[in-house]
Every structure is written in C-alpha cells, then in structure tokens.
C-alpha cells in the first residue's frame, strides 16, 4: 500500500519570483516569507469586518497577532523547497509520494492583485514554472501542484498541459464564483475536460477560499470583536468546500464530466 501525503506545501524562498521572472521581481514586493504571508492572510480574513456590518469593528491587531503566533508555532516540513531534504523526510516517515502546493506565493499574488492586477496571470505562470523546475527529476515522488484561474479558461488549459508535462498531477484554483460565473458555468467545461484528459486532479484547498459569515455574529456591545470573527470564520471552513461541490453537482459538472475526480484538502478533516 502506498502512503501519499496529498497536502504538503512549499516554503518558497524569498527570491523565487526574481529568479524565475527577474523583470516581474522588480515590479512586486520582494522577500515575501512567513511573516508577510500571515499578515496578508489575517488581513484577508478580517476584511469583511469593515464591510456590511452595522456594528463598528474593534482593532483587528489582536486577531492578526494571534494568527501569526499560531502560524509561527505550526510545524514546517523539512526541506521547504529542497527536494533532496524532502525525500529524507519522506523516507524517515514512510511517505511514498507528496503532492506539494503553494504557500507564500499566495501572499505574493494577493499583493500583486492590489498593486499590479495586470500581471496576475504572469505571477501564476512564474510560480508554476518555479515549482516544476524545483521538482524536476523528482516528480516520481514529489509532485508539483499547479495553480490556475478559471476566469481564463483557454489560458488555464494551456497551464494544465504545460504543468502536466512538468510532472504535475493536480491543480488548485480560487474557490469562489467569478463575476457572473459560478464554478459550474459551462465556460469552464474545457478546463474540466482537459483535467480529465490529462489526468490532472482539481484540488479544493481551504487556503483558496473564505467562509462567508455575517460580521454581526461577532458583535459584542455594538462592536465587532476581530478575534471572535476570525475564530468563527475558521470554524466554518467546511462551508467553502460544501458550496463549491454543491454548485458543481447541482450545476451538472459531474454529469457532463463523469470521470472528473476532485480532491478536498484541510476542511476540518
């Protein structure tokens, strides 16, 4: 029996973007690591507090600090981006294969969307290129997980084909509807068809969607408690996968693509 670690992650080096696409590295913030990642993640989680709530938000710094503290305590896999060290870790722990997805890249992409939205796809392409090159020669055991954006179906199909040639077998994508298009929209069918033909598994990961709850659930005395809001959001992560899967089921995606297999990661499992 094979033991497959289906939810491992890179800890990308600070210069991954500059090395892969030097021109793009000049345009975007350099050195995004764990501290910057957790800041960006906390800001994204707490963003709804300032929107649509009748109660005034309390200072979010406490929630952000606690979130960073929890991330600092989290165990980080040996060989964050060094395949030789990862194989030592895998052999020591009886792991035959690892699916390795992005981590700090998500913060880089979020920052790019705010400062240079025109280079979004280029950042994704650079990450996919870096991941494939980093694990080149090791993909029999260390499998790079690609990143795509369903809003650009033809581009996404090209990235799936390119990354399959680089040894990838799965891809992550944003788990929320685009403007006027849900995941079940027929415009995405060419992506699901390509995934099936290429043997690439769509991966729903908790880090690529947000649970949507009313900020007033965290209101105490007329103010939204940021720490409570963050905790409530994190207890509802299963909502992200439930909505995405239900949309694909009721929208007929699995009827149109009966061989499509979806992998769900980290939703309270």
Question: Any overview of this molecule?
Answer:
The protein is an alpha/beta fold. The protein contains twelve helices and nine strands. The strands form two sheets. Strands 1-3-4-5-6-9 form a six-stranded parallel beta sheet. The two termini are 22 Å apart.
What brief labels describe this structure?
46% helix, 13% strand, three-stranded mixed beta sheet, 12 helices, 269 residues, alpha/beta, globular, six-stranded parallel beta sheet
User: Main beta sheet, described?
Assistant: 6 strands, parallel
Helical/strand content category: alpha/beta
Question: What is the 3D form?
Answer: globular
Tell me the Rg in angstroms.
19 Å
The succession of helices and strands, N to C, reads: EHHHEHHEHHEHEHEEEHHHE
Mean pLDDT: 88
Number of strands: 9
Helix content: 40-55%
Low-confidence stretches: 52-60, 66-75
Strand order of the largest sheet: 1-3-4-5-6-9
Helix run count? 12
The end-to-end distance, rounded to whole angstroms, is 22 Å
Proportion of beta-strand residues: 5-15%
């Amino acid at each position: 029996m094979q033991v497959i670690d289906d939810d491992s992650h890179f800890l990308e080096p600070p210069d991954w973007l500059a090395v892969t696409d030097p021109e793009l590295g000049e345009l975007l913030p350099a050195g995004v690591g764990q501290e910057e990642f957790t800041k960006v993640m906390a800001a994204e989680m707490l963003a709804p507090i300032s929107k649509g709530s009748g109660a005034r938000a309390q200072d979010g710094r406490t929630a952000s600090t606690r979130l960073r503290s929890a991330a600092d305590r989290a165990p980080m896999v040996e060989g964050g981006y060094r395949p030789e060290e990862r194989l030592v870790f895998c052999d020591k722990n009886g792991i035959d294969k690892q699916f390795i997805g992005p981590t700090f890249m998500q913060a880089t992409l979020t920052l790019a969307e705010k400062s240079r939205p025109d280079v979004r796809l280029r950042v994704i392409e650079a990450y996919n290129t870096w991941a494939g090159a980093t694990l080149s020669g090791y993909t029999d055991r260390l499998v790079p997980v690609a990143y795509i954006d369903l809003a650009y179906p033809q581009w996404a199909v090209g990235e799936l084909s390119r990354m399959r040639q680089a040894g990838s077998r799965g891809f992550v994508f944003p788990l929320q509807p685009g403007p006027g298009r849900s995941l079940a929209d027929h415009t995405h069918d060419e992506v699901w068809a390509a995934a099936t033909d290429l043997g690439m598994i769509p991966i729903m990961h908790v880090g690529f969607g947000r649970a949507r709850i009313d900020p007033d659930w965290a209101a105490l005395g007329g103010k939204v408690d940021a720490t409570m809001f963050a905790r409530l959001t994190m207890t509802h992560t299963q909502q992200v996968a439930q909505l995405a899967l239900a949309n694909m089921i009721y929208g007929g995606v699995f009827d149109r693509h009966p061989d499509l297999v979806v992998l769900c990661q980290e939703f309270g499992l």
